[in-house]
């Protein structure tokens, strides 16, 4: 594995009495694409959200590019700027144009000049296939287009790692592939990615490693080829039997 970019050590998290992350140890190398799968309630999304501190953790450490996640304040904002996040819901600003949505972060956080940010913004919209929508507002775009804009918005910050929390689960079936195609392209370009998803096709096509979670723990992890053809744990076998027969 290349040198680790994201390292989780002994990470624990509770919601009340519920132990949602149990002693999680995981390393993600630079340029690695890790797909996290598992049944609902297994802790996948919480794991994803803990990596940029949208969820706090009670014990353990998370480091990104050698730096421990700060508690709060400016240092946390700085670190968050290095971690792109794409959610189920697109979270675009409804009153701003698509291009303004993309350039807001670079101008405000990275202190880029407006014309530079707009030039880069247009390149990214071109890359995700929605450049012709730049002057429209989010409500004028389909869900698939909005999610591709959300990906471009994350990329505009030049993140070191991208987190995807079920990015296609709110989309109509015919729009899922247009978003996954963009993600496959990012993976090919060497972007470090942690993807929580139910899209097994994406896991097979783009992942370097599949991490299977159940009950707040990492039960097993392997290459997609090995995991899908030869899962070793009963939990993973049961999970795959349920989803792959439909």
Q: How would you characterize the overall build of this protein?
A:
The chain has a domain at 4-91 and 161-244: P-loop containing nucleotide triphosphate hydrolases (Rossmann fold), CATH 3.40.50. The strands form 2 sheets. The chain has a 6-stranded mixed sheet with strand order 6-7-8-3-9-10, sandwiched between helices. The protein has a 4-stranded antiparallel sheet with strand order 2-1-4-5, with helices on one face. It has helices spanning 44-50, 73-81, 98-108, 114-127, 143-155, 173-188, 200-206, 224-229, 234-244, and strands at residues 4-15, 18-29, 33-37, 59-64, 67-68, 83-86, 161-165, 192-196, 209-214, 217-222. The mean pLDDT is 92. The chain contains 9 helices and 10 strands. It is an alpha/beta fold and 246 residues long.
Going across the major beta sheet, what is the strand order? 6-7-8-3-9-10
H/E element order: EEEHEEHEHHHEHEHEEHH
Shape verdict: globular
Regions with little confidence, pLDDT below 50 for 5+ residues: none
Average per-residue pLDDT, rounded, comes to 92
What oligomeric state do these chains adopt?
A: single chain
* Strand residue content: 25-35%
Biggest sheet: strands, sense, closure? 6 strands, mixed
**What's the CATH first level of the domain at 4-91 and 161-244?**
Alpha Beta
Total strands: 10
- CATH overall fold name of the domain at 4-91 and 161-244: Rossmann fold
Class by SSE composition = alpha/beta
Q: What do we call the CATH homologous superfamily of the domain at 4-91 and 161-244?
A: P-loop containing nucleotide triphosphate hydrolases
Termini gap: 34 Å
Q: What CATH architecture of the domain at 4-91 and 161-244 do you see?
A: 3-Layer(aba) Sandwich
Helix proportion range: 25-40%
CA-atom Rg in angstroms? 18 Å
User: Helix segment count?
Assistant: 9
């Amino acid at each position: 594995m290349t040198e680790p970019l994201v390292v989780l050590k002994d990470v624990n998290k509770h919601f009340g009495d519920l132990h949602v992350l149990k002693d999680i140890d995981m390393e993600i190398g630079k340029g690695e694409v890790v797909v996290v799968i598992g049944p609902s309630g297994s802790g996948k999304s919480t794991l994803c959200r803990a990596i940029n501190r949208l969820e706090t953790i009670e014990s353990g450490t998370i480091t990104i590019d050698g730096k421990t996640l700060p508690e709060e304040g400016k240092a946390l904002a700085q670190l968050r700027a290095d971690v792109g996040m794409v959610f189920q819901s697109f979270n675009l600003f409804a009153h701003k144009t698509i291009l303004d949505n993309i350039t807001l972060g670079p101008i405000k956080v990275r202190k880029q000049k407006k014309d530079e940010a707009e030039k880069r913004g247009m390149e990214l919209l071109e890359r995700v296939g929605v450049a012709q929508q730049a002057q429209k507002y989010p409500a004028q775009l389909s869900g698939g287009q909005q999610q591709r804009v959300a990906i471009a918005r994350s990329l505009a910050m030049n993140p070191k790692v991208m987190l995807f929390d079920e990015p296609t689960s709110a989309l109509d079936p015919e729009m899922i592939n247009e978003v996954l195609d963009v993600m496959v392209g990012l993976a090919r370009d060497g972007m470090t990615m942690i993807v929580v998803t139910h899209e097994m096709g994406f896991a097979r096509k783009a992942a370097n490693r599949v991490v299977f979670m159940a009950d707040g723990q990492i039960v097993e992890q392997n290459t997609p080829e090995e995991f899908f053809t030869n899962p070793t744990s009963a939990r993973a076998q049961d999970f795959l039997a349920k989803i792959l027969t439909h």
